[in-house]
Every structure is written in structure tokens, then in C-alpha cells.
Amino acid sequence: MDAVHERALAQGYDPERIHQECFSAEVETGGQPFEVVAATSGITVQVAANQTIVEALALAGLKVCVSCKQGICGSCLTDVLEGEPDHRDHYLTDDEKADGDQILLCCSRAKSAPSDYRSLRIF
């Protein structure tokens, strides 16, 4: 799929006009711990190094609509109110990722360096 995508770009196709669908994907979900604030409910959760945002929210009693758990279906797409997402999905376009105002909770994380604890404020 990457080769076809690259060939289309080389032929001058607008990136927004190139569509591809993944039916499975490998995604790295681990990383530095961070905090997520669910603005609607007022609940703050700690997301551990080996945990997804979906898992952390579930432990706090918040249910998130999630289907693939691989960042390809978009069912867990959520607005980011504050913070910088570390996008690990295959769903959002590069432009949407650059906007930084949405995140897929099944696989993406908050951007943070080991010495810089960060948080995300979502929906």
C-alpha cells in the first residue's frame, strides 16, 4: 500500500484524494506515563507506560467507544482540548495530525520527553 501511495504522490495526485484502508495494523502503544483529563466528567487518570488511554479511562469507570484497538477505524476519535498528542494511528491524515485537535484513544499518547511530564485534556 505504501508503494501505491508513493506512486500516486509522484504522479501529482493531491494527498487528500488518495484513500487507503487498512484491515489490521501493528501499533506501538507504550511510552512515558502521562495524565489525561476527561473534561466532560471532570475525571483525571494516570496513563501508565504500558497502558492505553482507553484502558486507563475504563479503570476509572469511563467507557469509550472502541472497535479495532489498532488506530485504523476511528471509532475512539476524540477532541483534544489541551496538550499535544503523540499520534500513532493510521486513521488521521497528516494534516489532521498536524492540527493536534483530535486523538485516537486506543493507541496514541501525549507527547512527552522522559523529564517532561505532560498531560492531555480531552472531550
TrEMBL record:
EC number assigned by the record: 1.-.-.-
UniProt-recorded Gene Ontology molecular function terms: 2 iron, 2 sulfur cluster binding; dioxygenase activity
Keywords: Dioxygenase, Oxidoreductase
Keyword Oxidoreductase: yes
Domain 2Fe-2S ferredoxin-type: 34-123
Lipid biosynthesis keyword on record: no
UniProt name for this protein: Phthalate dioxygenase reductase
Organism: Kluyvera cryocrescens (Kluyvera citrophila)
Taxonomic lineage of the native organism: Bacteria, Pseudomonadati, Pseudomonadota, Gammaproteobacteria, Enterobacterales
Gene (name only): ophA1_2
